[in-house]
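Retro notes (design track)

What went well: tokenization of the new backbones is finally stable.
What didn't: we kept losing track of which sequence belonged to which structure.
Fix going forward: every design gets posted as structure first, then sequence, in one message. First example under the new rule, 320 residues:
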């Protein structure tokens, strides 16, 4: 049985994997990264080796080392460190799950296998169950990201009766825009106390309205503080402020999406905002261009998301 832990809630940063210019993992900055998230962004939970962390582009040995470094550096600083252990090979996934338990991670998450795909809910749940069984003491999360896995089985279906098969099941990370599906995950699982984590940062407020108990995302690395304002306004039922904050964040995401936005660009933005070098992504991803970074920087400044004292007060469209 999974040990009783505080329910995962609030913001969870989907961490980047810092790399050196020659493509090796730069473990040396992870301690600094933890401090930055906690002190500068007010984010105390991390989701490691997921999409943003290029988990599927790392070797198993690298994934183990990255997980270990986050757990070590996060001790007594972070609330929860959840490790994504999904892989195409069940054996590798189980190995990573066992390892996460050994190092003292707070939970594991798994995506649907995406080369040979499960063709229905039962097959998917069987796969997830085999992974969860390798680390039965760890809270288990299903990571639903159909646009990337191509596995379109609705999350609502996956959740139906899942605790009978996976006793350690604790929640869902929902990285999709189908609010009917997400709403039904919430509506049909009131009794279960699952953590239902929304994964589309630009639509977080809709997720909260629908009943999300927290959120996992890439932008919380550098817009955590701003996004916490949405959570706080929502909590005090100040929906008009919450919407304003969401619109501000949307203005930024909408801008970068038009330029072409993904993990490489997130690395560039995080480097710019935090000052911690995230390095390039690993192939097949391509490093963000200088032009992208310059445009993103200008936009961050114009929205007052980047504290440049000399720009303050000048821009009427600022989102302070
Ligand atoms: C497809 C994708 O990368 N989605 C991101 C979002 O945070 C996304 O970057 C954000 O909503 C901007 O579109 C997360 O859901 C991914 C994530 O949590 C992860 O890295 O595991």
């Amino acid at each position: 049985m999974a040990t009783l832990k505080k329910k995962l809630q609030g913001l969870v940063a989907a961490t980047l994997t810092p790399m050196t210019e020659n493509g090796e993992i730069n473990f040396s900055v992870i301690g600094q990264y933890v401090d930055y998230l906690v002190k500068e962004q007010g984010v105390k939970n991390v989701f490691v080796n997921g999409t943003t962390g290029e988990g599927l582009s790392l070797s198993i040995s690298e994934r183990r080392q990255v997980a270990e470094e986050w757990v070590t550096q996060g001790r007594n600083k972070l609330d929860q460190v959840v490790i994504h252990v999904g892989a195409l090979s069940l054996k590798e996934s189980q190995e990573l799950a066992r390892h996460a338990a050994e190092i003292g991670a707070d939970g594991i998450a798994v995506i649907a296998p995406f080369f040979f795909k499960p063709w229905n809910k039962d097959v998917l749940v069987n796969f997830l169950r085999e992974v969860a069984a390798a680390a039965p003491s760890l809270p288990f999360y299903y990571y639903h990201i159909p646009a990337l896995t191509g596995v379109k089985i609705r999350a609502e279906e996956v959740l139906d009766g899942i605790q009978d098969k996976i006793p350690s099941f604790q929640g869902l990370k929902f990285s999709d825009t189908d609010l009917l599906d997400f709403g039904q995950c919430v509506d049909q699982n009131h009794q279960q106390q699952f953590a239902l984590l929304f994964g589309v940062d630009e639509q977080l407020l809709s997720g909260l309205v629908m009943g999300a108990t927290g959120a996992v995302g890439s932008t919380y690395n550098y817009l955590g503080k701003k996004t916490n304002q949405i959570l706080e306004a929502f909590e005090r039922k100040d929906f008009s402020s919450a919407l304003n904050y969401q619109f501000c964040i949307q203005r930024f995401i909408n801008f970068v999406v038009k330029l072409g936005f993904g993990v490489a660009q997130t690395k560039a933005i995080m480097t710019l905002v935090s000052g911690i070098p995230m390095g390039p992504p690993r192939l097949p991803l391509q490093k963000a261009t200088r032009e992208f970074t310059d445009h993103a920087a200008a936009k961050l400044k114009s929205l007052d998301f980047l504290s440049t004292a000399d720009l303050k007060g000048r821009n009427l469209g600022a989102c302070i």
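Added context from the reviewer: The chain has one domain: 10-238.
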